[in-house]
């Protein structure tokens, strides 16, 4: 489909609420973000405990948890933000039940597949490429962040992955909230470019789990999660993507211990499935 660096949402949004917002944790890397009149779903995964997810090359993993809500119970979505095309991030339930006209922002690898299965409003992004999403009197400038899903040769056979930086702006163009979502990435050199281009991150959602494929780690474990916090330097970090699949080998308790050892516990908010994190944004440049 035709590429565009802007997305105009048809729903009204004349008086967006910039003072507060929320993150609802569905499970795995699936969250529902509500802020400034936007409703955004990330990495839709609605399989249940005991279901198998296919990771490619004949590899599977069993889900240990249930999603906090069913896909049919979601509110109206403005768009879906998909870090990459993997079965535990965009599953067969999402492919079957999501409205095919729902805008989806993701990697070109993912959008090429989604186009083929009938989704009509996909927007591929390359690393550091931005898209302006406008809804009434609020604007979201979303930029694809660098990510690498596997080391060396393994990275070449895993799906390309992107993180995301979400800058929510008011009608005057002032950024009111800056949110980083890591995607399924390991620590790598390009992450260090993020704070140079995007300082003052208010909130970061970190994909953890220490996922291992053929014994090789392909998502951040506890120690890498703490390093990501030090690199991106968010005011508040929320760990997600942990404990949900058998392939996850670094439990949340390991991250909690590493955070405490790094004396960063005052900058982390922990969520269980079904929890909502409500945050306040009193003014431009203030933290959450």
From TrEMBL:
Signal peptide: none annotated. Residues 27-241 form the Metallo-beta-lactamase domain. Gene3D superfamilies: Ribonuclease Z/Hydroxyacylglutathione hydrolase-like. InterPro entries: Metallo-B-lactamas (IPR001279), RibonucZ/Hydroxyglut_hydro (IPR036866), UPF0173_UPF0282_UlaG_hydrolase (IPR050114). It comes from the Bacteria. This is Metallo-beta-lactamase domain-containing protein. It comes from uncultured Rubrobacteraceae bacterium. The lineage of its organism: Bacteria, Bacillati, Actinomycetota, Rubrobacteria, Rubrobacterales.
